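>> received
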Amino acid sequence: MKEALKQLVSGGIRQFGMVIALVVLIAYFQFSTGGKVLTPSNAQNIINGNSYILILAVGMVLVIIAGHIDLSVGSVAAVVGITVAITIRDWHLQWWVGVLLGLAVGLAIGAWQGAWVAYVGIPGFITTLAGMLIFRGMNQYIGKNNTIPVPEEIQKMGSGYLPSWGPDTVLNNSTLLLGIIGIAFVLWSAVRTNTKAKKLGLEAQLPLTVILRAVLLCLVIAYLTFLFGSGREGTSFPISGCILLFLVIVYSFIANRTITGRHVYAVGGNRSAAALSGVNIKRVNFVVMANMSLLAALAGIVFTGRSTASGPGDGTGWELDAIAAVFIGGAAVSGGVGTVVGSVIGGLVMAVLNNGLALKGIGSDLTQMIKGMVLLLAVAFDVYNKVQGRPSIFGLIFKGKGKRADELVAEASVEDSAAVPVDAGETAARG
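>> returned
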């Protein structure tokens, strides 16, 4: 039992980082506000009110892992939001056509910015700083500083809930089904990971460690299912939360299980080594920037749905919240390190902090100061752990997924050995 617990936490309490911070924050605000935090309505508000920032964090972590930063995401979200609202109103488009058009606009903006970064060689910071100014002005020019409403269907994307159906089970059946799927996935993943490790001849975790981790995650999912499914009639798990869950699953798979994801880590960890390994650095830079604007477009659409309209002030300061979420979630300032799950956890830390301080009646001035201190301490904690040579908690919980950049460079080298040209220096020059 002692060995299993040691393997579970592997290295001590410091390894749990922001996971511990999130739990402590929730517990503190739950008791200090008289139980107002862990209520169905408040939990739903936290997800609905912060889903667009968490969506941005999913894309931003890949940008930061690759060694860049994107300051334009708020302005891109704003210009997409106003474009969707106006085209649906004036062109009489179906709502879903307007959404697809908005995503296409976001992708086009991302391709434009990605081309400057990847093929012209302009640093991402400068390119997106220019984009922040350009697209902020474009938002105000297109909308003429007016607020344009969006259809009810888009409003449901930002503030709607999973529907009720079937027999009375006390909980919302859609939320209950989602929870059952989540628990089944955790159990399947636990068995599959250990079985795969044994087949590959790798060191498998102790059975008790696997059981403890699976039980812990299942209990968390079960509680969240009860929390979101037991709210007032007509409410359940938010649709924006479902969009976020889908993105986390897809992008975690891309980052951890695909060659493209490994190349992103490789480029951010050691650009020269990645080039010599045959990694197409220009393509990686182009993809992460284009993808970021695509997710910014989605975030903008979700936000306009929650606010029921698109206006000239949309997107202001979003880039700072998204960047803070990524760094609080364990990403390295120098690139090459970070996880999608970690970034979402970092975003939730900021969301709970905002929510709890608001429930306690703390003013915006103190709230900003506290958030800044949390960001500073989180990065200091990450630096300390690296000096000590400790892995991140997300690599421990999702074992095998939190690889270091140098390991990913080596994997990229092996997988792409056939793509390495005879003149390696030529590859580096092309990168």
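>> The domain at 2-12+36-160+238-416 is CATH 1.10.3470 (ABC transporter involved in vitamin B12 uptake, BtuC).
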